[in-house]
Design goal:
By secondary structure, this protein is an all-beta fold. The chain contains no helices and 9 strands. A 4-stranded antiparallel beta sheet has the order 1-8-5-6, with no helix packed on it. A hairpin with a 5-residue loop joins strand 2 (33-34) and strand 3 (40-41). The radius of gyration is 20 Å and the shape is elongated.
Length: 140
C-alpha cells in the first residue's frame, strides 16, 4: 500500500490514482500504399497529408514529426477536451480520434508517438490520408 504523509485520503480513496511514470515512445515505420494483404507498392509516390490516431483509454500524448532537413515539430494532444468530463474525476475518454497534420512524402519524415503521463496510452489504430501516384507504371 501507499501512504501519503499529512493527508487523509480515506474519503476519496475510490478516486485516487497511483501510477508509475514511464516513457511511452514509439517510432512509426514508413507508410506505403497497400493494395491487398500481399502487395505493397514501395516505388510509388505517396504524400501523407495527415495521420489519424484512434486512441483508447488514454491520457496526454505527444506526436513528434521530424521532416528531413528541418526542425522537429511537436504536437501535444489531450485525448479528452476540457468541459467534456466531470469535475473532480479522471480526465480519460473511452475512445477518441486525434488528427496530426503532416503534408510530406512518405520517405521525407519520421514520426514518433511519445508520452510521459502517469495515465496509460492506448493506441488502437492509425489511418492515413494522402495522395498515391503509381507514376504510370503498370502494377502486376
Amino acid at each position: 500500500y501507499f501512504s501519503v504523509p499529512n493527508k487523509d485520503l480515506s474519503g476519496v480513496a475510490s478516486k485516487v490514482i497511483v501510477g508509475w511514470t514511464y516513457a511511452y515512445d514509439i517510432e512509426l515505420p514508413r507508410t506505403y500504399f497497400r493494395r491487398d494483404a500481399r502487395t505493397v507498392d514501395t516505388s510509388a509516390i505517396v504524400v501523407i497529408n495527415r495521420y489519424k490516431f484512434s486512441m483508447g483509454l488514454s491520457g496526454v500524448c505527444q506526436f513528434k514529426l521530424k521532416p528531413r532537413g528541418a526542425d522537429q515539430w511537436i504536437n501535444t494532444a489531450a485525448v479528452i477536451d476540457a468541459q467534456q468530463y466531470l469535475a473532480n474525476d479522471v480526465p480519460l475518454s473511452n475512445q477518441s480520434i486525434i488528427t496530426v497534420p503532416i503534408h510530406q512524402r512518405n520517405n521525407n519524415f519520421t514520426m514518433r508517438v511519445f508520452s510521459e503521463s502517469p495515465f496509460p496510452v492506448s493506441l488502437t489504430s492509425m489511418m492515413w490520408e494522402g495522395n498515391y501516384s503509381p507514376r504510370y507504371y503498370r502494377r502486376a
